[in-house]
Specification:
single chain, 798 residues, mainly beta, four-stranded mixed β-sheet, 9% helix, 39% strand, disordered N terminus, disordered C terminus, repeat, membrane, Protocadherin/Cadherin-CA, signal
Length: 798
């Protein structure tokens, strides 16, 4: 079998190539580290990754390298030409890391084909871009005139957002006779100034002093910040305030509301009066402390001024000062630890997503994504999963990075679309989760052949149809999509090579409509079979076939054809009937056939015309012509009958036949001419006949007489025969296609006929056909009384 295929010449096909990422993770321990100064301009060169990773030139581009950074801020990028690592934006270390040192920004480099993650760190180096700054422009300091030399008075520190050597490194005081500055280190590494008394104060001589305090950082050149120190000289105050504890420690949940009490500090002063009245305040506290907390000057209650955020600042450390009315003060330290609550849902950052994947391709990478949770402890631990009963798997690559891949090959015909929900949940209490929905479409490949709706089709068409008649439709479907599902129909080579299929039917290649190309003839072709093919337009094309059987329905397009008596003979056939015949005597039988089938071939007979109505009748079902009553001497000797043969079609078709019947008194005559042949009988005998008679007479008159006697005896024994003369039975049966069951009007195989030949002319001319029946006159006149009675009843005669 050869399918009809479209040939395409000199044309290149463009095939969409799907890059299937095979997961070959190399989660090695190697870490690439780079450093760069903050405030560097965007586009600055950071590193040559091709060289640092030992890759070939152009491999980063070939493997579609991509920088993945936590969160939505992309501060690194690849040069589109050289694939050098460049700075994507100007970075501010203080904004990104605050006071944390070192300031490290993690990133990953994602390579594809195969997939590979490379961990990296970018360290931001501080530049001296911030000057020291005091929170207050004027610092008030009350010192008793009785203070001894060498007494140190701590002063409030200056703030510097820079870190390391760029932050505050030293303090100086303006020139004076009473004090000098000593710079000390705090436990957190910051430096603070102490004002040391060099010469005793005398309130009566100088009640107050105004000095300038300067803070210097370690930059080159150093940046400075100043504040005025106002020193008020007080009368003698014997006791300074003392706190109950030098260090207060407390934990505060980050979701504590504004105004919540954090802790209460308490101090006492043994002096009386105004010297024993205490006032609480922050001492040497940072901007972060002052913005987040407030202290009640009377009670020492420390309360929240704003909501805390564990993910932003995890702890605070502050100095609280208690001052009495005499200018003396005491200090304590308050350490506040912010405890984490699960107030941040996990975050999912998609790095790679392929929404369209081909079917029948296993282990295809669909998505690569990272997850993160800024909470700590169990609140920051995460688990990632997708819904069950999906042909996809989540595989972890490096820490908190996942790959979504197909689990085996997908079948588009089973399911063409998947809605996948990636759920990330943390382990905190209560658990928080994030859902990310992606839609994956399965693209089609040509893996299904067209399938006919039926394995075989049976169509019916009535004969004598008009050409190009639509006789039926075959239909095939293809489970694929697009061009792979577009079906083209064609006729396959015929099963029987003798059937001219190309001239009988055609098929529409687009919709499978079948058409008869010419008018069909039931009598010539009653049925035929052929195969149709259905091929899709995929590459490669797939096909299937089905069997079609066409049945030609008969139409009443053939009139009955009379086989006997013959109407084209040179002389009409004359039937001889003895006058002594009773009612129901079989005169002859009209035999006809019809080329149609079914009810179109059912024949009925009727007597259309008769010389003497009522004397003869015709059986409707078998065409037998019989006498309807007893014959008499008054009946005419010659009769002409016209018999109508009609089929049962719609409309009915018919034919007629003329019969000649001659009533005779007996069969003593050796030969009886038909009336139309009497004139021909009077003609002179042929010369051959004359020669034979003379020859026979000359041999022996006695011999001739004996022969005549012998012939006369034979004729008498056959008394009642319907025809005289020399008769012979035709050799062999009639053709099979003219044979039908008895009683339908067609010729039965068991029915024999005599061929009567005219002998008077000597030309052996066909005279008539006459049935040979067993009940001839000499034997059955008396035994057919019952049959004759039935016959009369059939025709309505009494």
């Amino acid at each position: 079998m050869e399918m009809v295929q479209t040939k395409v010449h000199h044309k290149k096909r463009q095939v969409v190539i799907f890059i299937i990422l095979i997961i070959l993770w190399e989660a090695g321990s190697e870490l690439i580290q780079y450093s760069i100064l903050e405030e560097t301009e965007s586009g600055t060169f950071v590193a040559n990754l091709t060289k640092d990773l030992g890759l070939r030139m152009g491999e980063l581009a070939a493997r579609a390298a991509q920088v993945v950074v936590k969160g939505n801020r992309q501060y690194l990028q690849f040069d589109p030409e050289t694939y050098d690592l460049l700075l994507n934006e100007k970075l501010d270390r203080e904004e990104l890391c605050g006071s944390t040192e070192p300031c490290v920004l993690p990133f990953q480099v994602l390579l594809k084909n195969p997939v590979q993650f490379i961990q990296g760190e970018l360290q931001l180096q501080d530049v001296n871009d911030h000057a020291p700054e005091f929170l207050e422009n004027e610092i008030l300091l009350k010192i008793s005139e009785s203070s001894h030399t060498g007494t140190a008075f701590p002063l409030k520190i200056a703030q510097d957002l820079d870190v390391g050597s760029n932050t505050v490194q030293n303090y100086t005081i303006s020139t004076n006779f009473h004090f000098h500055i000593f710079t000390r280190n705090r436990s957190d590494g910051r430096k603070y100034p102490e004002l040391v008394l060099d010469k005793e104060l005398d309130r009566e001589k100088q009640p107050e002093l105004r000095l300038t305090l300067t803070a210097l950082d370690g930059g080159s050149p150093p940046k400075t910040g100043t504040s005025q120190v106002l020193i008020m000289v007080l009368d003698i105050n014997d006791n300074a305030p003392e706190f109950a504890r030098q260090l207060y420690e407390v934990q505060v949940p980050e979701n504590s509301p504004i105004g919540s009490l954090v802790i209460t500090v308490s101090a006492r002063d043994l002096d009386a009066g105004t010297y024993g009245e205490l006032s609480y305040s922050f001492f040497q506290s940072s901007n972060q402390v002052i913005q987040a907390f407030e202290v009640n000057t009377v009670t020492g209650d420390i309360r929240l001024k704003k909501m805390l955020d564990f993910e932003e600042i995890r702890s605070y450390r502050m100095e609280i000062e208690a001052s009495d009315g005499g200018g003396l003060s005491g200090k304590c330290t308050v350490a506040i630890e912010v405890t984490d609550v699960n107030d941040n849902a996990p975050e999912l950052t998609m790095s790679l997503l392929m929404n369209d994947i081909p079917e029948n391709t296993p282990d295809t990478v669909v998505a690569i994504f990272g997850i993160s949770d800024p909470d700590a402890g169990d609140n920051g631990k995460m688990m990632c999963y997708i819904q069950d009963h999906l042909p996809f798997l989540l595989k972890i690559t490096v820490e908190n990075f996942y790959t979504l891949v197909t689990e085996g090959a997908l079948d588009r015909e089973s399911r063409a679309k998947y809605n996948i929900t990636i759920t990330v949940t943390d382990m905190g209490t209560p658990r928080l989760k994030t859902e990310h929905n992606i839609t994956v479409l399965v693209s089609d490949i040509n893996d299904n052949a067209p399938a006919f709706t039926q394995t075989s089709y049976t169509l019916s068409v009535r004969e004598n149809n008009s050409p190009a008649l639509h006789i039926g439709t075959v239909r095939a479907t293809d489970r694929d999509a697009g061009a792979n599902a577009q079906v083209t129909y064609s006729l396959l080579p015929p099963l029987d090579p003798h059937v001219p299929l190309a001239s009988l039917v055609s098929i529409n290649p687009d919709n499978g409509h079948l058409f008869a190309l010419r008018s069909l003839d039931y009598e010539a072709l009653r049925a035929f079979e052929f195969r149709v093919g259905a091929a899709d337009r995929g590459s490669p094309a797939l096909s299937s076939q089905a069997l079609v059987r066409v049945l030609v329905a008969d139409d009443n397009d053939n009139a009955p054809f009379v086989l006997y008596p013959l109407q084209n003979a040179s002389a009409p056939c004359t039937e001889l009937v003895p006058r002594a015949a009773e009612a129901g005597y079989l005169v002859t039988k009209v035999v006809a056939v019809d080329g149609d089938s079914g009810q179109n071939a059912w024949l009925s007979y009727q007597l259309l015309k008769a010389t003497e109505p009522g004397l003869f009748g015709v059986w409707a079902h078998n065409g037998e012509v019989r006498t309807a009553r007893l014959l008499s001497e008054r009946d005419a000797a010659k009769h002409r009958l016209v018999v109508l043969v009609k089929d049962n079609g719609e409309p009915p078709l018919s034919a007629s036949v003329t019969l000649h019947v001659l009533l005779v008194d007996g069969f003593s005559q050796p030969y009886l001419l038909a009336p139309e042949a009497e004139a021909a009988a009077a003609a002179p005998a042929a010369p051959l006949t004359v020669y034979l008679v003379v020859a026979l007479a000359s041999v022996s008159s006695l011999f001739l007489f004996s022969v005549l006697v012998f012939v006369a005896v034979r004729l008498c024994r056959r008394g009642g025969a319907a025809s005289v003369g020399r008769c012979s039975v035709p050799e062999g049966p009639f053709p099979g296609h003219l044979v039908d069951v008895s009683g339908t009007g067609t010729l039965s195989q068991s029915y024999q006929y005599e061929v009567c030949l005219t002998g008077g002319s000597g030309t052996r001319e066909l005279k008539c056909l006459k049935p040979l029946v067993p009940n001839i006159m000499g034997e059955g006149v008396g035994t057919d009384t019952e049959d004759n009675s039935n016959f009369r009843n059939h025709f309505g005669f009494n």
